[in-house]
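Students often ask why inverse folding is considered easier than folding. One informal answer: many sequences map to the same fold, so there is more than one right answer. In these notes we will look at a single instance of the problem. The structure comes first.
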């Protein structure tokens, strides 16, 4: 039976939103040696092609996000550990980052996390369905997707629950992986905010240059 989360999720979201306000402010100057404004963000790889269904049971692919930077994580709705906290932090980013930045949450428990379950979960965190997609599909494909995005994901066994990475991944408008950020580290989240804004500015600058050619 699915646990009732609406009230706890509301409290969790409010608390995280307050904490994230400080994180976003701290990240305005892009401080830190790796994320300094004068250094190029590394290209760590390319997001593997995928096709999954979202919380509205619509088919979504990697091409859906072409032209927009996006932030991704891997969670599942029955998770009682880091997943609700990560989702609350993603909700805060949804409200603080430029609207060009999309959000994508892949389920690591897709057999349980049907579109209807994900729709209810998204509602608990006030997710904007046009901007934030919760994806479900084949279990093996979802695990492969996590690995292809340089994250750890281990399916549940009789002795242990699902084990998964607690990082957010930043992808640019061309589908390239530009960074991975620990969700429990305030400085990492500040860097993520700064880097996402930087990708938006770079994309807008490139579009203006293309228009002049």
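Output (designed amino acids):
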């Amino acid at each position: 039976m699915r646990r009732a989360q609406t009230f706890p999720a509301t409290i969790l979201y409010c608390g995280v939103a307050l904490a994230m306000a400080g994180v976003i402010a701290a990240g305005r100057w892009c401080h830190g040696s790796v994320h300094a404004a004068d250094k190029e963000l590394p290209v760590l790889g390319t997001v593997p092609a995928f096709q999954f269904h979202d919380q509205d049971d619509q088919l979504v692919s990697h091409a859906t996000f072409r032209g927009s930077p996006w932030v991704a994580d891997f969670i599942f709705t029955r998770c009682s550990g880091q997943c609700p906290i990560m989702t609350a932090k993603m909700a805060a980013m949804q409200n603080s980052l430029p609207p060009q930045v999309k959000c994508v949450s892949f389920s690591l428990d897709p057999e349980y996390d049907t579109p209807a379950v994900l729709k209810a979960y998204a509602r608990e965190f006030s997710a904007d369905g046009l901007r934030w997609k919760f994806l479900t599909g084949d279990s093996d494909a979802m695990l492969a997707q996590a690995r292809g995005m340089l994250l750890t994901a281990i399916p549940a066994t009789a002795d242990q629950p699902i084990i998964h990475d607690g990082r957010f991944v930043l992808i640019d408008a061309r589908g390239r992986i530009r960074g991975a950020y620990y969700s429990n580290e305030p400085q990492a989240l500040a860097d993520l905010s700064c880097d996402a804004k930087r990708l938006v500015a770079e994309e807008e600058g490139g579009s203006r240059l293309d228009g002049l050619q």
